[in-house]
């Protein structure tokens, strides 16, 4: 685990105090950590959960002694990382880390109980039933609130990617209103070695406001706009050979079907397949062969890459008036837009769908620690951004 800063240690202590204050009550009590991608939410949770389980398993005088606690994340690739961490820590077990649906179904069958739940990427919790994934309730967080005494979760509404897990801060706060709760908001960017001006530019872009790139991108950050996707790929391969953990990723908008076959992204001389389903215990980005694949939000969300080469696909164009346009009919991730009964207004639905696409861009743009390379399918957008 990465070491904590002084402020992060203080926050872990604050959450632990909140937890011990409420763990012997009937519950539930909720502590929410808000923060954009790269603000250190996951490292805080990892340290917090390690301390929770150490107290539960080794400290007989602690209020947490012999409590049953779980760490949940609704993302199979991130789950692999946490289970790898568990193998290196003396008081963590791999079974402590679960997908939410798995735990919800175990709780419903009386196979386990839960005192404290720590939820990473809570914006990925299902907010409607999903029979394909064996969740038959109407909201995963609501189901977990009925079972636990304390819930600690991290949340970023700009990383919501699918209608079936559609959340906003307002919806979350409305759900939590009846319960004792506290929250903090993290703002400092830890992942990207980029300037505040560039992070602001990314945030503006992913809310539909396109400006020219700032002059100050950060002394130790490499930002390039490419006019050729194959040239960008070759540059990423070179970076991967130099420092590792460098990958090509893309937004949706290219052929993609979950049928077990390979589907390719083609842009001029660039021709690579989408990421394949990863059956190993190693995260996608750490597999050497994935340098010859294109990552998606489903393999890259929550991960640090050293350099990321991002393809902005056909759904994103720039109008002659330099306004960003989002074309829903060009989005090929059919899973993203499953119908929701609670959003009936047509204009609201269109706005939500467009924001989900921009959220995916936000997730992908913030993967790179040391650099971001961009190729846009739309020629006008490429030129506006300064492709050479």
From TrEMBL:
Source organism of this protein record: Levilactobacillus fujinensis
Identification of the protein by name: DUF2075 domain-containing protein
Source taxon at top rank: Bacteria
A Pfam short name: SLFN-g3_helicase
Annotated AAA+ ATPase domain residues: 27-196
């Amino acid at each position: 685990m990465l070491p904590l800063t002084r402020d992060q240690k203080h926050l872990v202590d604050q959450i632990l105090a909140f937890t011990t204050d409420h763990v012997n009550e009937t519950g539930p009590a909720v502590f929410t950590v808000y923060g954009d991608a790269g603000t250190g939410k996951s490292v805080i949770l990892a340290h917090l959960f390690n301390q929770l389980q150490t107290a539960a398993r080794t400290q007989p005088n602690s209020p947490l002694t012999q409590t049953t606690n779980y760490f949940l994340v609704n993302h199979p690739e991130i789950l692999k990382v946490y289970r790898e961490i568990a193998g290196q820590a003396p008081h963590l077990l791999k079974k402590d880390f679960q997908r939410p649906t798995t735990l919800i179904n175990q709780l419903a069958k009386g196979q386990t109980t839960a005192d404290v739940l720590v939820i990473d990427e809570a914006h990925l919790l299902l907010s409607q039933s999903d029979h394909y994934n064996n969740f038959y309730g109407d909201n995963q967080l609501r189901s977990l609130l009925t079972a636990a005494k304390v819930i600690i979760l991290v949340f970023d509404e700009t990383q919501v990617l699918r209608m079936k897990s559609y959340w906003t801060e307002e919806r979350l706060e409305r759900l939590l209103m009846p319960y004792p709760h506290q929250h903090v908001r993290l703002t400092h960017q830890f992942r990207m070695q980029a300037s505040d001006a560039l992070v602001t530019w990314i945030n503006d872009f992913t809310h539909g406001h396109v400006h020219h790139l700032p002059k100050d991108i950060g002394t130790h950050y490499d930002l390039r706009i490419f006019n050729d996707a194959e040239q960008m790929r070759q540059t990423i391969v070179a970076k991967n050979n130099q420092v590792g953990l460098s990958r090509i990723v893309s937004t949706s908008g290219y052929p993609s079907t979950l049928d077990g076959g390979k589907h390719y992204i083609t842009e001029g001389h660039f021709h690579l397949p989408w990421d394949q389903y990863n059956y190993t215990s190693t995260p996608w980005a750490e597999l050497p062969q994935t340098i010859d694949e294109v990552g998606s939000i489903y393999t890259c969300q929550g991960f640090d890459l050293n350099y990321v080469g991002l393809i902005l696909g056909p759904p994103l164009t720039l109008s002659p008036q330099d306004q960003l346009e989002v074309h829903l009919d060009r989005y090929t991730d059919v899973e993203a837009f499953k119908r929701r009964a609670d959003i009936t207004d047509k204009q609201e639905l269109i706005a939500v769908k467009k924001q989900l696409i921009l959220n995916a861009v936000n997730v992908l743009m913030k993967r790179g620690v040391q650099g971001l390379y961009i190729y846009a399918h739309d020629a006008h957008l490429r030129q506006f951004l300064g492709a050479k």
